[in-house]
Amino acid sequence: MEVDHEGCKTPRRRESRIPAALACPPAPRKKPVFSKERSPPKDGYFQPPDLEALFMIAPRREACA
């Protein structure tokens, strides 16, 4: 069975062409953020009793040989 490839061509009409690229839309604008000044909590900030103990470096244990 023979296939005739000479009959196939790329369409050349104006309707078949890829349209020209349009200009990109502008980037979206950031919405303004309104922040109001907060007052400190009525009961004060949380004060953990042993904060330094959390950040203490534990002594290294040497491996037995």
Automatic annotation (TrEMBL):
Region annotated Disordered, chain positions: 23-48
What domain of life does the native source organism fall in? Eukaryota
Report keywords, A-Z: Cell cycle, Protein kinase inhibitor
Spell out the InterPro entries in the cross-references: SMR
Q: Please give the name of this protein.
A: Cyclin-dependent protein kinase inhibitor SMR4
Organism of origin is: Hevea brasiliensis
At the highest ranks, the source species' classification is: Eukaryota, Viridiplantae, Streptophyta, Embryophyta, Tracheophyta
